[in-house]
Amino acid sequence: MTGVTISDNQVRRLAHEVGHELIARRDRKAVEHRRRQLEPRTAVVPVAVVVEVDGGRIRTRAAGAGPGVHEAQNKEDKVACLATLSGPTFATDPCPEPPESFRCPRRVRRLVQQMKGPAGEVAPPETVDESTPPVPAGEPEGAERWSPTRLVRTCVASLEGSTAFGPMMAAEAQERRFYEAPRRAFVADGQAYNWTIWRGYFGAFEPIVDFLHAVCYVFSSAAAVSPDEASGWSQYVAWMRACWQGRVGEVLTELDQWQARLGEPPLGEAATAEERRDPRRVVAHARTYLGNNRDRMAYPRYRRNGLPTSSLVESLVGEINARVKSTQKHWTRPDGAESILQLRAAVLSQDDRLPRFFAERPGSSFRKRDTLCHKSEGATAQTVA
User: Fold this and answer.
1) Residue 351 class from Cβ within 10 Å (0-12 exposed, 13-18 middle, 19+ buried)?
2) Where is this region: Disordered (predicted)?
3) pLDDT tens, 44-58?
4) Sign (positive or negative) of CA dihedral 29, 34, 39, 41
5) Cα pseudo-dihedral 284, 286, 291, 295, rounded to 10
6) CA-to-CA distance for 214 and 225, rounded, in angstroms?
7) What pLDDT digit, counting tens, does each position of 244-276 carry?
8) Sign of torsion over alpha carbons 321, 207, 117, 57
9) What is the H or E stretch that residue 88 is in?
10) Alpha-carbon distance 242 to 248, whole Å?
11) DSSP letters of 286-335?
12) For the whole model, what pTM was predicted?
């Protein structure tokens, strides 16, 4: 646009520099939150909010080892989505039957394949978007909307562990006055660290296990215990509907019966794909997942309260991955990866935080220079004159 040539090294250096400034600002806010010194940046208290967290994998390399990839490692990047919501509450369950998208074999198989596939490749997931759900079978067009609408989304991302990531999420929530909202939800998958963060920083939020992950476990276990594809699909629909309607206990009872018939899984981790597909292991994993998260699967109550039952962070992780993940990208540990995650999170946040950051950044053309700077410039001008 300007005809000015900018080298790759200059872009890399500036991105690294700005990323480090964003890291420093983020960490400072986490400290202020812990000391109860962090002020909200908005005057409006949201009506309904959701906090979500998920993890992915990015490829990294050792720092200071020269050109090329040295000591390649996959590292987990944690991503949090904090969104304000709007939508009504209901006296009864507004959607007692699962949407058609969960009863479409092609979509469900693709969903399961993508959510349980190997990490590291860029493949935008075809997830079920509850913000515009398909009309369930038998429901007329124009039926009352039951799922909440997302308003403003912000993002927190880091390679730090959950102990450090929790305060980052809490600081972002406090700045946006999430703790004052009348309706609050925390949605995540069954990873233990997610619920450690919930207990430590969001205990007053309604804990909800992402329904999409429950679908994956139910689908896999139904296929494992059925003699053919048709009966497996029928079993999946029955178990999926039971989970959707909050009858997780019934599914667990049937899985217990299947485990008794099949026998207990072999000891030790599965080493091959064939061992991972062992019906005994598949059923045991589903029993563990549903059993551990049973109290977070009261989906009819969440829908009545106008809260989401599926995670928005899945699509956000895909947007993060589109920038940082591929078979050819290896980010330098730890600074290079952490810097680019801060930039990507700022770009994907819908509160104009990156333009505001540049407007407030020292040296910005939008900021007035201090008096000392003006005096030194004046003296320099006189000397030159």
Assistant:
1) middle
2) 116-146
3) 999 999 999 998 889
4) positive
5) 170
6) 17
7) 999 999 999 999 999 999 999 888 887 788 888
8) positive
9) none
10) 6
11) HHHHHHHTGGG--HHHHHHTT--SS-SHHHHHHHHHHHH-STT--EETTH
12) 0.84
